[in-house]
Fold:
Amino acid sequence: MGLRNWALRKSPWILHFNTGSCNGCDIELVATLTPRYDIERFGMYLRGSPRHADILLVTGPVTRQVRDRIVRIYNQMPFPKSVVAIGSCCMSGGVFSNCGKGPCYNVYAGLDQLIPVNAYIPGCPPKPEAIIDGVAKLLESMKATKRKEGTPDEPAQ
Amino acid sequence: MDWALGLVSLLVFPGFALMIALSFLYEWYDRKLYAGIQMRRGPLYTGPMGILQPFADFIKLMSKEDLTPRHADRRVFNSVPVIMVALMLTALTMIPVTGASGLLSFSGDIVFAIVAMTFFCVLVFLAGFSSMSRYSIIGAERAVLQLLGFEIPLMLSMVGACIFSGSVTISGIVAQQSGLWNLIGPPLLGFAIFLIAAQAELERVPFDMPEAEQEIVAGWLTEYSGRKLALIRLARNLELIFIAGLAAALYLGGPLGPSTDALAPVLFPLYFIAKTLFVILLLAFMKSIFARVRIDQMVSFAWRYLIPLSLVQIMITLIWRAL
Ligand code: SF4
Structure:
């Protein structure tokens, strides 16, 4: 198990999904991929296909329109997998959370309403350093806890 | 004891174990070079200087969940990765590592080398087609288009080296170069064509349409995950060694070089590694200084420039030999 856990921590392949972001978080995430921050140092690799990815990076408020898609993409990823919510919108609905009373009519109050989330990166938008730090903390936490494997969680709702 | 020695040389050195270890090393070297040219550091924290990165990727993929899409053609989909690795390990036994000839050497083994590369493309097509996903089918079609474009210049450049050396065995071509490398002479043009076509054969960046990440997700690889993806990546790294080894054997004098009889078993594999690393250096440069070409540009480049050039190269070689 030691070798397997080591390999999991050393080679996190990421997948980026935009659930309705204002593009602020996306630009920061794209900046994270540039040579200046060079996340390949940690073995991270941006993959296009959910079948190849280990970590799903989600940006933006989760709209009702995108619900089915995000759940399907989550289910398409092979175990073991992790989800990171980037930005205030993705964590809690952010600026969309209190239009009048309660969350907006078209926005969920955070990604964890739909799928299990392993790490949250606050900020509007978070800096590339914060994103790298968040993912590194997630990888660090994998060392300690033995991660549960099993059937995909049913989406709430 | 003869068969035991044969088994060791097939399984350990210079056979399968060495090749698999080299495939991890070369992937790391390729990624480091690619990163260095882009002013990055590349893999850094996995082992000393990130040297264990490809190994970590392999172990991780091996331990991940293995998915098969519901509509895929199960039998083909599951067997393609294994056949790919088996094919490349078989083809690698023909590459000379410790002397003028590889583990297997027979008259016409260069034809087998061509067949192995073509068959690899057929397997890519089968992999994409059996996934039954839009993206993989588009990727598979592009792979076949690429095969039509670049297989012919690849073969013609190899034929040029054969004519120059007057032999159709890899060991014969290597032995003939014990004095002067083929590179120094008319096959130089053939070497350039071989490298360009090899880049397309390996689906590396200027010609990576079959898995163009920005257009068709991951091309023919889209539906592969876990163990099968690990095997496919291994097979492609082995193909990289195969093509680098073939280029070294055909144009750079194979593993031969200055040495004495006593030192030859140590020096020849080192020469082999040095020469293949040089070929990969050229391939990595090509990968990092060009952007991906369009499909129509790729086809017209192959048919309008590369094939006439490779015919010219054969003509020059024939005239050279006739003189
Ligand atoms: S957190 Fe801020 S930057 Fe990110 S999507 Fe929401 S509003 Fe835009």
About this structure: Chain B has a mean pLDDT of 84. The two ends of chain B are 49 Å apart (CA to CA). Chain B touches chain A through 36 residues (CB under 8 Å). Chain B has one domain: 69-322.
